[in-house]
Specification:
Helix content is about 35%, strand content about 20%. It is built from eleven helices and 15 strands.
């Protein structure tokens, strides 16, 4: 009997690589790294990228370990095949490791007992070429993508994938990890409600959000918080305490307060645990919850407790939304590489996956509108943001 010829469509359905139409010597080997703080969905992006590259094109994928550090003096790489990404969809973190340090353009080195900032990006370029990479996919937030754009300007074939649980990147409606972080914070608020009511206390939940308050706003709204303090609306502690007094008088002997780590008082500064050690460094925020708790207790006499959610927001299995978004981002990144549309970042707009220039996506933050619909909805149901009433129109 004649052998049935397998069509391309059937071949792809069986998981076989689709023959590439590119001429010999064209793109065959791509690198990928994860930079900055980890986020639920990173592994899902890696899984989608590797599977798409292999199944659709027969490409080789090289993982760069520990962010851009893996391209410096001690090159750290690993080949990523189908077996390496098996089971990654529900797994948090990143199998490649990550770091929010290691900027090759501002590398710290000790010389004669002093710390110097030097540019060793040429070394990273050299190692990129030595690895035989035709393109590098950088999965990261604002800082990592700024570095990626600098390498693009130096001649590296770069594609960016946005990653931040803060949801603060411009040019994309959503970033993976954010929905999972909101779910984690909302679960915490739900649990704090019962203990706060039992002991007639004010409970403060401090969440991440250096410059923007998306996590605090959405989790606070979803969790039924009474007060939400975010960086975009400087708070008046008297307004916060007045809200607690009003609740007590109405019979509600407890209050739930959600605070972004970057929230600051009127004419005040953010609360830091560690100042930047260099002119280019980033200060470490933290402690605003404890600061507010002490003020509430002093001004109202209400016993106040603080829970700092911290890195719990970064951990755990990604939500279904984040798994799907991560998968779509990984697929799109490979598409951009195939089309040789470098210097661009994958984005999510109007429920579609698209791309924008990296330079248009970094440098400024997507902030909460203090008078937007979300804040307006929260205020309509009585949530307090600590606005100073004398500033109201």
């Amino acid at each position: 009997m004649p052998t049935k010829k397998t069509t391309k469509k059937e071949s792809r359905a069986k998981g076989k690589p689709r023959p590439t139409t590119k001429a010999a010597g064209d793109m065959r080997r791509i690198g990928v790294l994860t930079g900055g703080g980890d986020a639920p969905g990173l592994n899902a992006v890696l899984r989608a990228l590797v599977k798409t590259a292999i199944i659709q094109h027969g490409w080789e994928v090289i993982g760069i370990e520990e962010g851009f550090e893996g391209l410096l003096k001690k090159v750290r790489t690993r080949k990523l095949g189908m077996k390496d990404v098996r089971g990654l969809l529900p797994r948090g973190g990143t199998i490649l490791g990550s770091t929010n340090r290691g900027n090759p353009f501002e590398h710290k080195q000790n010389k004669h007992g002093k710390t110097e900032i030097v540019d060793i990006s040429d070394l990273a370029m050299k190692n990129y070429k030595k690895l035989g990479l035709d393109a590098l996919v950088v999965i990261g937030g604002d800082g990592s993508l700024k570095i990626a754009h600098q390498f693009f300007n130096k001649g590296m074939n770069i594609v960016g994938v946005p990653k931040t649980i803060d949801n603060d990147l411009m040019a994309t409606d959503a970033t993976f990890g954010f929905r999972t972080a909101v779910q984690t914070a909302t679960d915490a608020i739900d649990k704090l409600h019962t203990t706060a009511e039992s002991h007639h206390r004010a409970m403060i939940l401090e969440v991440m959000g250096r410059y923007v308050g998306w996590i605090a706003l959405e989790s606070g709204l979803a969790g039924g918080a009474d007060i939400i303090l975010i960086p975009e609306i400087p708070y008046d502690i008297k307004e916060v305490c007045d809200k607690i007094h009003r609740r007590n008088k109405s019979g509600s002997k407890f209050s739930i307060i959600v605070v972004s780590e970057g929230a600051k008082p009127l004419d005040g500064e953010v609360t830091v645990t560690e100042k930047a050690k260099t002119p280019h460094g980033i200060e470490r925020l933290g402690g605003v919850g404890n600061k507010i708790a002490a003020q509430i207790t002093e001004l109202t006499g209400v016993e106040t407790r603080v829970t700092v959610l911290g890195h719990l927001q970064r951990g755990g299995s990604p939500s279904p939304f984040d798994r799907i978004l991560s998968t779509r981002f990984g697929v799109k990144a490979v598409e951009l590489v195939e089309q040789e549309r470098f210097g661009r970042m994958v984005c999510y707009r109007d429920y579609r996956i698209d791309s924008v220039k990296i330079e248009d996506a970094v440098g400024s933050f997507k902030s909460v509108d203090p008078y937007g619909q979300l804040v307006g909805a929260a205020e309509s149901i009585g949530i307090e943001f600590g606005r100073h009433t004398e500033h109201e129109a």
